[in-house]
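Good morning,

Attaching, inline, the C-alpha coordinates for the sequence recovery test we're adding to the shared suite. The designed sequence is right after.
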Protein backbone atom coordinates (compact mmCIF):
# COMPACT_ATOMS: atom_id res chain seq x y z
CA UNK A 1 0.00 0.00 0.00
CA UNK A 2 1.28 3.44 -0.92
CA UNK A 3 2.00 5.63 2.12
CA UNK A 4 -0.08 8.75 2.69
CA UNK A 5 2.94 10.92 1.94
CA UNK A 6 3.11 9.46 -1.57
CA UNK A 7 -0.56 10.21 -2.18
CA UNK A 8 -0.12 13.76 -0.92
CA UNK A 9 2.81 14.25 -3.24
CA UNK A 10 0.66 13.11 -6.17
CA UNK A 11 -2.09 15.70 -5.73
CA UNK A 12 0.35 18.49 -5.00
CA UNK A 13 2.27 17.76 -8.18
CA UNK A 14 -0.80 17.34 -10.37
CA UNK A 15 -1.82 19.66 -13.19
CA UNK A 16 -5.00 20.75 -11.45
CA UNK A 17 -3.04 22.03 -8.47
CA UNK A 18 -0.78 23.97 -10.86
CA UNK A 19 -3.92 25.59 -12.30
CA UNK A 20 -5.02 26.60 -8.80
CA UNK A 21 -1.56 28.08 -8.20
CA UNK A 22 -1.84 30.05 -11.44
CA UNK A 23 -5.30 31.38 -10.57
CA UNK A 24 -4.15 32.47 -7.11
CA UNK A 25 -1.08 34.14 -8.63
CA UNK A 26 -3.26 36.00 -11.15
CA UNK A 27 -5.72 37.05 -8.42
CA UNK A 28 -2.98 38.60 -6.25
CA UNK A 29 -1.32 40.15 -9.29
CA UNK A 30 -4.56 41.76 -10.44
CA UNK A 31 -5.40 42.98 -6.93
CA UNK A 32 -2.04 44.74 -6.81
CA UNK A 33 -2.48 46.16 -10.31
CA UNK A 34 -5.76 47.81 -9.26
CA UNK A 35 -4.20 49.15 -6.03
CA UNK A 36 -6.28 46.91 -3.78
CA UNK A 37 -3.11 45.91 -1.94
CA UNK A 38 -0.86 48.22 0.11
CA UNK A 39 2.69 48.96 -1.10
CA UNK A 40 2.71 46.79 -4.26
CA UNK A 41 1.81 43.29 -5.33
CA UNK A 42 5.39 42.02 -4.85
CA UNK A 43 5.33 41.33 -1.08
CA UNK A 44 1.92 39.68 -1.41
CA UNK A 45 3.09 37.51 -4.30
CA UNK A 46 6.12 36.62 -2.18
CA UNK A 47 3.87 35.46 0.68
CA UNK A 48 1.68 33.51 -1.74
CA UNK A 49 4.69 31.80 -3.33
CA UNK A 50 6.08 30.97 0.10
CA UNK A 51 2.74 29.41 1.12
CA UNK A 52 2.51 27.40 -2.12
CA UNK A 53 6.05 26.12 -1.65
CA UNK A 54 5.20 25.02 1.89
CA UNK A 55 2.07 23.22 0.70
CA UNK A 56 4.23 21.28 -1.76
CA UNK A 57 6.76 20.46 0.95
CA UNK A 58 9.42 22.78 -0.44
CA UNK A 59 11.39 25.76 0.83
CA UNK A 60 12.94 28.81 -0.81
CA UNK A 61 16.31 27.10 -0.94
CA UNK A 62 14.74 24.49 -3.25
CA UNK A 63 14.26 27.22 -5.87
CA UNK A 64 17.62 28.90 -5.45
CA UNK A 65 17.87 30.81 -2.16
CA UNK A 66 20.98 29.22 -0.73
CA UNK A 67 24.36 30.23 0.58
CA UNK A 68 27.04 30.67 -2.03
CA UNK A 69 30.27 28.72 -1.75
CA UNK A 70 32.15 31.93 -2.58
CA UNK A 71 30.29 35.10 -1.57
CA UNK A 72 33.00 37.52 -2.77
CA UNK A 73 32.87 35.95 -6.24
CA UNK A 74 29.06 35.93 -6.29
CA UNK A 75 28.84 39.57 -5.23
CA UNK A 76 31.53 40.58 -7.75
CA UNK A 77 29.78 38.79 -10.63
CA UNK A 78 26.40 40.23 -9.66
CA UNK A 79 27.80 43.75 -9.26
CA UNK A 80 29.62 43.66 -12.61
CA UNK A 81 26.50 42.32 -14.31
CA UNK A 82 24.35 45.01 -12.68
CA UNK A 83 26.60 47.87 -13.80
CA UNK A 84 26.88 46.41 -17.30
CA UNK A 85 23.09 46.02 -17.56
CA UNK A 86 22.52 49.59 -16.41
CA UNK A 87 24.95 50.99 -18.99
CA UNK A 88 23.59 48.76 -21.76
CA UNK A 89 20.04 49.82 -20.94
CA UNK A 90 20.91 53.51 -20.94
CA UNK A 91 23.18 53.57 -23.99
CA UNK A 92 21.86 50.80 -26.24
CA UNK A 93 18.53 49.23 -25.29
CA UNK A 94 16.42 52.26 -24.38
CA UNK A 95 17.39 54.35 -27.46
CA UNK A 96 16.52 51.37 -29.68
CA UNK A 97 13.18 50.78 -27.96
CA UNK A 98 12.39 54.51 -28.06
CA UNK A 99 13.11 54.55 -31.78
CA UNK A 100 10.81 51.57 -32.30
CA UNK A 101 7.90 52.63 -30.07
CA UNK A 102 8.26 56.39 -30.40
CA UNK A 103 8.18 56.85 -26.64
CA UNK A 104 10.19 56.42 -23.46
CA UNK A 105 9.38 54.42 -20.32
CA UNK A 106 7.18 56.39 -17.94
CA UNK A 107 9.36 56.68 -14.85
CA UNK A 108 7.57 59.69 -13.41
CA UNK A 109 6.98 57.66 -10.25
CA UNK A 110 10.64 58.15 -9.28
CA UNK A 111 11.36 61.65 -10.61
CA UNK A 112 10.83 63.13 -7.17
CA UNK A 113 14.22 61.79 -6.00
CA UNK A 114 16.11 64.41 -8.05
CA UNK A 115 17.68 66.76 -5.52
CA UNK A 116 16.55 64.81 -2.45
CA UNK A 117 19.07 62.44 -0.89
CA UNK A 118 16.46 61.30 1.64
CA UNK A 119 14.15 60.12 -1.13
CA UNK A 120 17.14 58.59 -2.91
CA UNK A 121 18.08 56.48 0.11
CA UNK A 122 14.49 55.39 0.68
CA UNK A 123 14.06 54.36 -2.95
CA UNK A 124 17.37 52.48 -3.03
CA UNK A 125 16.38 50.58 0.12
CA UNK A 126 12.91 49.83 -1.27
CA UNK A 127 14.48 48.78 -4.58
CA UNK A 128 16.72 46.21 -2.90
CA UNK A 129 13.89 44.79 -0.79
CA UNK A 130 10.97 44.82 -3.25
CA UNK A 131 12.68 44.61 -6.65
CA UNK A 132 16.05 42.91 -6.19
CA UNK A 133 15.03 40.45 -3.48
CA UNK A 134 11.25 40.26 -3.83
CA UNK A 135 10.94 40.16 -7.61
CA UNK A 136 13.79 37.70 -8.09
CA UNK A 137 12.33 35.36 -5.49
CA UNK A 138 8.87 35.54 -7.07
CA UNK A 139 9.61 35.67 -10.80
CA UNK A 140 12.89 33.79 -11.22
CA UNK A 141 12.89 31.55 -8.14
CA UNK A 142 9.24 30.52 -7.94
CA UNK A 143 7.58 31.28 -11.28
CA UNK A 144 10.35 30.16 -13.62
CA UNK A 145 10.96 26.99 -11.65
CA UNK A 146 7.27 26.10 -11.38
CA UNK A 147 6.51 26.69 -15.05
CA UNK A 148 9.52 24.59 -16.07
CA UNK A 149 8.43 21.80 -13.70
CA UNK A 150 4.89 21.75 -15.09
CA UNK A 151 6.25 21.60 -18.65
CA UNK A 152 8.48 18.63 -17.90
CA UNK A 153 11.70 20.16 -16.61
CA UNK A 154 13.78 19.59 -19.75
CA UNK A 155 15.79 22.20 -21.65
CA UNK A 156 12.85 23.20 -23.86
CA UNK A 157 10.68 23.66 -20.75
CA UNK A 158 13.23 26.02 -19.21
CA UNK A 159 13.49 28.04 -22.43
CA UNK A 160 9.70 28.44 -22.61
CA UNK A 161 9.66 29.32 -18.91
CA UNK A 162 12.42 31.90 -19.32
CA UNK A 163 10.68 33.68 -22.20
CA UNK A 164 7.11 33.35 -20.91
CA UNK A 165 7.79 34.47 -17.35
CA UNK A 166 9.94 37.36 -18.61
CA UNK A 167 7.10 38.60 -20.83
CA UNK A 168 4.67 38.50 -17.90
CA UNK A 169 7.30 40.20 -15.73
CA UNK A 170 7.40 42.99 -18.31
CA UNK A 171 3.62 43.27 -18.35
CA UNK A 172 3.73 43.61 -14.55
CA UNK A 173 5.45 46.95 -15.21
CA UNK A 174 2.78 48.24 -17.59
CA UNK A 175 2.58 51.48 -15.58
CA UNK A 176 5.81 52.38 -17.41
CA UNK A 177 4.00 52.26 -20.76
CA UNK A 178 4.88 49.97 -23.65
CA UNK A 179 8.56 50.98 -23.74
CA UNK A 180 8.92 50.13 -20.07
CA UNK A 181 7.23 46.76 -20.59
CA UNK A 182 9.66 45.84 -23.38
CA UNK A 183 12.75 46.97 -21.47
CA UNK A 184 11.63 45.23 -18.28
CA UNK A 185 10.89 42.00 -20.18
CA UNK A 186 14.39 42.15 -21.65
CA UNK A 187 15.72 42.62 -18.12
CA UNK A 188 13.70 39.61 -17.01
CA UNK A 189 15.36 37.46 -19.68
CA UNK A 190 18.78 38.68 -18.53
CA UNK A 191 18.09 37.98 -14.85
CA UNK A 192 16.66 34.61 -15.82
CA UNK A 193 19.82 33.73 -17.74
CA UNK A 194 21.93 34.75 -14.75
CA UNK A 195 19.75 32.48 -12.61
CA UNK A 196 20.22 29.52 -14.93
CA UNK A 197 23.92 30.08 -15.62
CA UNK A 198 24.65 30.29 -11.89
CA UNK A 199 23.18 26.84 -11.34
CA UNK A 200 19.69 28.17 -10.50
CA UNK A 201 21.03 30.22 -7.63
CA UNK A 202 19.18 33.44 -6.87
CA UNK A 203 22.21 35.19 -5.37
CA UNK A 204 23.68 36.53 -8.63
CA UNK A 205 20.41 37.87 -10.14
CA UNK A 206 19.45 39.45 -6.80
CA UNK A 207 22.77 41.33 -6.61
CA UNK A 208 22.65 42.24 -10.31
CA UNK A 209 19.08 43.52 -10.05
CA UNK A 210 19.87 45.58 -6.97
CA UNK A 211 23.04 47.08 -8.43
CA UNK A 212 21.35 47.93 -11.73
CA UNK A 213 18.48 49.71 -10.00
CA UNK A 214 20.90 51.53 -7.71
CA UNK A 215 22.90 52.75 -10.72
CA UNK A 216 19.71 53.98 -12.39
CA UNK A 217 18.62 55.85 -9.27
CA UNK A 218 22.05 57.43 -8.83
CA UNK A 219 21.97 58.63 -12.44
CA UNK A 220 18.69 60.35 -11.74
CA UNK A 221 19.90 61.90 -8.50
CA UNK A 222 23.33 63.08 -9.62
CA UNK A 223 22.66 64.00 -13.21
CA UNK A 224 18.91 64.39 -13.47
CA UNK A 225 19.08 61.65 -16.11
CA UNK A 226 15.81 59.75 -16.36
CA UNK A 227 16.71 56.51 -18.19
CA UNK A 228 14.84 56.42 -21.45
CA UNK A 229 14.38 60.20 -21.79
Amino acid sequence: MEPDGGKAADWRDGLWFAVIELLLFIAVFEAGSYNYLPVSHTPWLFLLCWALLRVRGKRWRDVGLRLSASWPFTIAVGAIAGVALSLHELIVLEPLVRQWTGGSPDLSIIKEIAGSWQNLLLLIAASWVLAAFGEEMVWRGFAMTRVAEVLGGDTAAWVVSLVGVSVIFGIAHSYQDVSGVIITAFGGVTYGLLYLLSGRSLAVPIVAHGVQNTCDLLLIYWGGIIPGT
